[in-house]
TrEMBL record:
GO terms for molecular function: dioxygenase activity; oxidoreductase activity, acting on NAD(P)H. The keyword ATP-binding does not apply. Residues 9-306 form the FAD/NAD(P)-binding domain. It comes from the Bacteria. SUPFAM superfamilies: FAD/NAD(P)-binding domain, FAD/NAD-linked reductases, dimerisation (C-terminal) domain. This is 3-phenylpropionate/trans-cinnamate dioxygenase ferredoxin reductase subunit. Its cofactor is FAD. Residues 325-417 form the Reductase C-terminal domain. One of its GO terms (cellular component) is cytoplasm. PANTHER family: APOPTOSIS-INDUCING FACTOR 1 (PTHR43557), RIESKE DOMAIN-CONTAINING PROTEIN-RELATED (PTHR43557:SF2).
């Protein structure tokens, strides 16, 4: 493809789904402008959810994680710099410097640098057999160790920790999850729904050690045990750490771009530096619907936000304004969550259906202003109650005041409550 000087030059920094989708976004508007895509890992962009699900369990091929193969990037006239990360950014000069020393000039730059696993900072955490799960190679390394009878200690009962616990238990391992909170996922779902997660895992033979943390990991060169606060040692062949992630904001910070929880953007995903955008896990975007800045670590946000950023780079003025959406699979429980509960809000939880049936919904609600007794839904989740997320997202977006009893009643039509068309039953 020939280029001319009137064309916009695009640079995309990142090797995840947001980066790949940004190429699609740019090309949906601009078929010709040169695109350079820069990754840190020795991989073309890939998506991560299968790393703790199908790929980890061996149900899916490791190569199923690529949204596009190399040939597709050639067809899109994307120049790939794989395994040559951006090490600095000069926003005023509009150049990015790569580790190889190469300088790449841009008119529009997307930072889609995602996040990195937070390290467990206890003695012994560097031993062989202490694993993390963020990258493709880490999923294969873990899979090799999830053998029948292996003793697996999972540190952290967040989404990744619970999905690993489920995969390990299904592989015949003896699994213990250690979590300092009183129930799994307490900060996201509260104790009541967290209790359902605890019960689900116990029913599948997983031992939960709640209200306690890890003091150290024992072993000479290889992890052999996990010492809990109080001194008890859990024998371990494998220790999997899932204690959260940190957004990769270093490039932006180095360039003087505004960063708080993530890289701050407006509703078009533009950062504080002219010509520089951010999307995916690393971005804290201005949500008009939620009237706040939002940063989430969700596949859907990388998928849709990456695409929106690509379009924004190419000149679109559409705002990116989704209601955040997340999903997880554990054993036979498929669940989806939509909405957003700000950290400083302590919502009431309304249940719809009986959790012990493994088919129920939960809503996080606050009193609706001026609507006596009724509530407003901040977020909703279902377990095995499919086709409900459009209604939940509408309730959140429209701030619809709803009657608590009807919300809790599985026979009351949720779509009607939300004022959206019922899902097509066919
Ligand atoms: C194991 C696992 C399971 C998950 N399961 C789910 C799920 O079930 N549902 C769900 O909604 N979400 C899930 N997620 C979260 C989801 O995968 C993330 O939200 C998503 O990957 C974010 O995409 P991203 O492109 O923003 O960032 P990332 O996927 O983190 O990709 C960022 C990439 O940028 C690269 N990079 C960083 N710095 C530089 C640099 N300076 N130069 C070049 N490249 C750089 C990184 O190496 C990385 O490859 C899961 C995540 C993991 C790890």
């Amino acid at each position: 493809m020939s280029t001319d000087e009137s064309q916009r030059r695009y640079v995309i920094v990142g090797g995840g789904l947001a980066a790949s989708r940004a190429v699609e976004g740019v090309r949906s508007i601009d078929e010709r402008g040169p695109i350079v895509l820069v990754t840190e890992e020795d991989e073309i962009p890939y998506e991560r959810p299968p790393l703790s699900k199908g790929v980890l369990k061996g149900d899916d091929e490791p190569d199923s994680v690529y949204p596009h193969d190399r040939g597709w990037y050639d067809e899109q006239h994307v120049q790939l710099h794989v395994g040559d990360p951006a090490t600095s950014l000069d926003a005023a000069a509009r150049t990015v410097t790569l580790r190889s020393g190469e300088q790449v000039a841009f008119d529009r730059l997307l930072l889609a640098t995602g996040s990195s696993a937070r390290a467990l900072e206890v003695p012994g955490a560097e031993l062989d057999g202490v694993l993390y799960l963020r990258e493709k190679g880490e999923s294969s390394a873990l899979r090799e160790r999830l053998t029948d009878g292996a003793r697996v200690v999972v540190v952290g009962a967040g989404w990744i920790g619970l999905e690993v616990a489920a995969a390990a238990s299904e592989a015949g391992c003896s699994v213990t999850v250690v979590e300092p909170q009183a129930a799994p996922l307490v900060r996201v779902v509260g104790e009541q729904v967290g209790g359902w997660f605890a019960d689900l895992h116990r029913r599948h033979g997983v031992t939960l050690r709640l209200d306690t943390g890890v003091e150290r990991i024992t072993g000479d060169t290889k992890a052999e045990g996990v010492v809990l606060e109080g001194g008890e040692t859990l024998p371990a062949d494998v220790v999997v750490v899932g204690v959260g992630i940190t957004p990769n904001t270093g490039l932006a910070e180095g360039a003087g771009i505004t960063v708080d929880d993530g890289i701050r953007t407006d509703e078009h995903l533009h950062t504080s530096a002219d010509g520089v955008l951010a999307a995916g896990d690393v971005a804290s975007w201005r949500s008009t619907a939620l009237d706040t800045h939002v940063r989430v670590e969700h596949w859907a946000n990388a998928h849709d936000g990456g695409y929106a950023a690509g379009r924004s780079m190419a000149g679109s003025d559409e705002a990116y304004d989704p209601i955040p959406f997340f999903y997880s699979d554990q054993y036979d429980a498929g669940l989806e969550y939509a909405g957003y509960v700000p950290a400083d809000v302590d919502p009431e939880v309304v249940l719809r259906g009986e959790p012990s049936t493994d088919e129920f919904m939960a809503f996080w609600v606050v009193p609706a202003e001026g609507a006596d007794g009724r509530v407003r839904v901040l977020a909703g989740m279902h377990v095995n109650v499919w086709d409900t997320m459009d209604a939940v997202q509408a309730l959140v977006r429209d701030r619809t005041p709803v009657d608590r009893e009807r919300l809790a009643d599985p026979d009351a039509d949720l779509s009607e409550l939300a004022g959206v068309p019922a899902p097509d039953a066919s």
